[in-house]
Specification:
Length: 454
């Protein structure tokens, strides 16, 4: 890292604190572009070995070479935070990236969802993920590549089927309901009470609870805890994948807020950084414009959302109308659901030219009537339930069959049935008993998927 960039980092950190940003220390590291792409694909610098990450890497590489994506930085919240900058970026670009990272660091320390996640998972996810990778490498050496990969296939197919409301550390369900006295004492107790005038306690009844005692949406936890024949190392892999999913959830659920907050602060810090030479500021401003623009060119229409542009625009509007302190309270308390529903106003949506549309089979795109509430839900629909269909464990039958249910009426998502059947195969290999899933087909008729391992 050049002395020039190192000097700018120190000055920007001081300026950020003067402007009220509050964050854990951030360790900046300059790395080759290929390593940046690996980190972006794996999600962490070191992560459990699995073929699916290779597939994602190839996709990202193709997108990059076609000019559809560029990775400026990868940030990991924690204490300290970690930020990787691309060695291919110019000093001007990396100066903007440093200011952007400081906005992310402020967000992740103070947003309630991030704080809860980090309190549960820990503030050293990079080291924990490396420990998981070492643990799985050891399992491969002991049990073989094929067995371990089969468990990872299943675990990663369910990595988004967690329940953030239940928390990371959970106890097993109680086996019995709370004891309660019988409603009708037997004849002996009635006669004894009549003779002595002082009753003795009626016998207590215990009722065995069904498994699960309520709908369970944390499939990874349930299978790791209750699958009847899993070995300890298999359970450990499922729980390692689940722990990392808890870490990634706030990044997913706050993407629009987080990227917008970081974009607002990188723009403001660079504007206030009088120590930056004019040519650097101009280049950084151009890069900022590229990052937060709504679409690819002046004559094009965007049919996909740029979270940087939308988040930046909403924060800029909030701060202009209500001030920075109100914006900070919103940043601390909300996730993308509350942020979009409460602060993307009808006027702002018109100003940003946001609209809903549907595409016909012949390729024609038709704009729907403007409805701000429908627009909110269209933006948020891909974020519901970690972006996956909502599936619960409903029952474990007496023969061990695992009964799952797709809550299509809540998430309004259909299932790709061939893909769902493949996931059922993964689950059955872990459960080692029959598995059934109740869902609906494309016209709303009940569809039952079955997998018994034969």
């Amino acid at each position: 890292m050049s002395e020039r960039l190192r000097d700018y980092i120190g000055r920007l950190e001081n300026l950020a604190r003067e402007r009220g940003l509050d964050y854990f220390p951030v360790e900046f590291e300059l790395v080759p572009p290929a390593f940046m792409m690996e980190i972006a694909v794996y999600g962490l610098p070191v992560r459990m070995p699995h073929w699916s990450f290779g597939v994602r890497y190839i996709y990202q590489l193709v997108q990059h070479r076609m000019g559809h994506s560029r990775i400026f930085e990868v940030v990991f919240p924690g204490n300290p935070g970690r930020a990787y900058l691309s060695a291919d970026n110019t000093v001007d670009e990396n100066t903007l990236v440093v200011a952007h990272v400081l906005g992310h660091a402020d967000f992740s320390k103070n947003n309630l969802l991030f704080r809860r996640s980090q309190d549960e998972v820990g503030y050293h996810i990079v080291e924990q993920a490396a420990s998981h990778a070492k643990q799985i490498t050891g399992a491969i050496e002991e049990y073989g590549q094929r067995r371990v990969e089969a468990v990872l296939d299943a675990a990663l197919s369910l990595e988004q089927n967690i329940d953030m409301h239940q928390g990371l550390r959970r106890e097993r369900y109680p086996e019995f309901d709370k004891p309660h006295a019988t409603e009708d004492p037997d004849e002996f107790h009635q006669r004894y009470d009549a003779l002595t005038g002082s009753g003795i306690p009626a016998p207590l009844q215990r009722r065995r609870l069904p498994l699960p005692p309520h709908e369970e949406f944390d499939l990874l936890w349930f299978i790791a805890t209750y699958a009847p024949e899993l070995d300890g190392w298999e359970r450990d892999i499922l729980l390692a994948v689940r722990e990392e999913s808890f870490y990634f959830y706030p990044v997913f659920a706050c993407q629009i807020m987080n990227e917008g907050w970081a974009s607002y602060w990188h723009a403001r810090l660079l504007r206030d950084a009088e120590f930056l030479p004019p040519d650097l500021y101009l280049e950084a401003a151009k890069t900022h414009s590229d990052v937060v623009r709504p679409y690819a060119g002046s004559d094009q229409v965007a049919l996909s959302l740029n979270p940087y542009h939308l988040g930046f625009s909403i924060w800029e509007h909030i701060i202009k109308e209500r001030g920075v302190e109100v914006a900070r309270r919103i940043m601390e308390e909300e996730d993308d659901f509350g942020f979009i529903r409460n602060y993307l106003t009808e006027d702002l949506a018109h100003e940003l030219s946001l609209f809903r549309y549907h595409a016909r089979r012949d390729g024609e795109v038709l704009v729907d009537d403007f409805d701000i509430h429908a627009l909110h839900e269209a933006i948020l629909a891909p974020k519901f339930n970690f972006g996956t269909p909502r599936i619960s464990v409903d029952e474990v039958k007496t023969d061990g069959t695992l009964k799952l249910r797709h809550h299509h009426e809540i998430d309004q998502r259909g299932l790709d049935l061939p893909r769902a059947q493949r996931v059922m195969e993964y689950i059955q290999k872990l459960w080692r008993r029959p598995v059934v899933l109740y869902t609906v087909d494309s016209v709303g008729r009940e569809e039952i998927l079955r997998e018994d391992g034969t």
